[in-house]
Amino acid sequence: MSRILIKICGLSTPETMEAAVDAGADMVGLVFFPKSPRHVSLSDACRLADIARGRSQIVALSVDMDLPSLQRINELVRPDLFQFHGQETPEACAAARVMLRTRIIKAIGVREAADLDAALPYVTVSEHILFDAKPPKDSDVPGGHGVAYDWSLLKALDLPRPFMLSGGLDPANVATAIATSGARAVDVSSGVERAKGVKDSELIRAFVAAVRSAEDVKE
């Protein structure tokens, strides 16, 4: 099995950022969404990004953010990619990609098979399509709930872009999730936390190790 891309999202302390990078995470995510318990300020994000720069790809996650705010993040934090986790249109993603001269990850919420169709308009503007669980109906935060969905829905996907699997992943189930979905990239946030919004270095290391072990399993 070829190498699987690992993204650890919602990092907010130097210790856990260092743990993610040292463990071998390919991508590390910084959340710019005040309603999220994982939200970081621009000043903190700059410090965290400096830890990862040149070692892991830095991803800036935003939710329906205006372009001037995205430009400020781009100038100060200098992420490698932007992840759009709201209701951003394909046109908005394309405009941001051009104006920010960046790569895009677009998150799509999934609860049932019909939800996968929403990814199609984004395949020409996104580096990756990230399939995450739809949030509970009473939530105003689009991700990071630790909610899983039927990962087998992704098995037969035929997209011209790589997809990432997110939603309910943790060190104990990620190998099963990979085998069930056929994903070649995984994204975890709440599954490596000891409390909501509080990352755990040992869980981060365990998650990365579990994914790397899954790579050794023959298909």
UniProtKB/TrEMBL annotation:
Enzyme class (EC, first level): isomerase
Biological processes, Gene Ontology terms: L-tryptophan biosynthetic process
Tagged with keyword Isomerase: yes
UniProt keywords, alphabetically: Amino-acid biosynthesis, Aromatic amino acid biosynthesis, Isomerase, Tryptophan biosynthesis
Known pathway: Amino-acid biosynthesis; L-tryptophan biosynthesis; L-tryptophan from chorismate: step 3/5
CDD domains: PRAI
Residue ranges of domain N-(5'phosphoribosyl) anthranilate isomerase (PRAI) in the record: 6-209
Catalytic activity reported: N-(5-phospho-beta-D-ribosyl)anthranilate = 1-(2-carboxyphenylamino)-1-deoxy-D-ribulose 5-phosphate
Domain of life: Bacteria
InterPro entries per the UniProt record, alphabetical: Aldolase_TIM (IPR013785), PRAI_dom (IPR001240), RibuloseP-bd_barrel (IPR011060), TrpF_fam (IPR044643)
Protein name: N-(5'-phosphoribosyl)anthranilate isomerase
